[in-house]
Design brief:
mainly alpha; two-stranded antiparallel ribbon
Length: 301
Amino acid sequence: MLNDYLLTVISNIGMISLLAISAYILLITGEISFGQQAYFGISAYSGAIATTLWGWPFWVSLLFGSLLAGIAAGLVSALTVRISGLYFSISTLAFSEMVRLFLLKFSYQKEIDGELLGPNGAEGFGGIRWIFDNNISVFQYTLLIYLILFLVIICLFFIERSGLGMIFRMIGQDPMLTRVHGINPVNYKVFAAVLAGFIAGLGGMLYAHSFTFIEPQIFNVMLGVHSLAYGLIGGLGTVFGPLIGVALDIGLLESIRVIHGYRMIVFGGLVAIMLILMPRGILDEKRVYRLRLALRNWLHV
C-alpha cells in the first residue's frame, strides 16, 4: 500500500501536470507565457474561499475558481495578444507578479466556529479543511486529481485531432499562412489563453485543497518557468509531452537524494541540453507521427 508521502508526491505530479498542460497549449500557438502560475493562484484562492468561507460545494467551487482563472487569462490575452515574442512573455510575467503582489496585501477573513479563516496577506491562507470535513483520504483525493487530469487529457486529445487543434498549430508555425486562409489568429489565441487559464485553474484549486495552506510566494516566477520547461522537455507534439517533463522533474529528480540539493541546477542543465538536441522536446511532432505510424502498422499485422 502506498504511504501518504508517496501519495502526496504522486498527487503533486498530477496537479502540476495541469499547470504544465496550460503552458503547453500556449506553446503550440507560438506564445511563451511566464505567467500561468497567476491563474493557478487565482483559482487556488478563489476556490478555497468558496469552500472554506462561503460553504459552497467542492465541484461548484472548482468550476468557479477555474472559470475566474480562464476569464482573467482571456482578458490578459485580449490586451496583449497583438504583441508577440519576448514582449508577450514579459507582459505575462508582469501580470503574474501583479497577482502575487496583490495576494500579499489581500485580506478577507470570516469567523467560523470561533476561528478566523481566510486569506491574510503575506501570512497566507490556512484552514482549507474540505478534505478533512468530508473524510476524504489522501488516496481518494489523489484519485480525484487523476480523474480530472484524465478528463482534461481526453478533451485535449480530441481537440488536437480536430480543426481547432490544427488551427492552433498552424498559428504557432506560420501566423501569416493562417491569415491567408482567412483565419484571424487573434481570436484563436485569446480562446487558447482562456482554455489554458481554465486548466491552470483546475490545478490551482486542487492544489489549495490538497495542501490545506497556500501563500502568495508559492505562485512565484519559478513555478511559471518550470511549467513552461516541462512542455519544452517532454515535447510539443502531443499533450502527453508536458506529463513527461513533470514526471522527470518531480517524479525522478526530486526522488534522487544524491542530487536533491542540486535539483534546480540539474533541471536547468537538462532544459539547456534538450533545447540544443531536441528543440521541440522528446515527443516532438515528427517523433509522434513516426510512433503513430509504427503503432498503426503493428495493429494491422
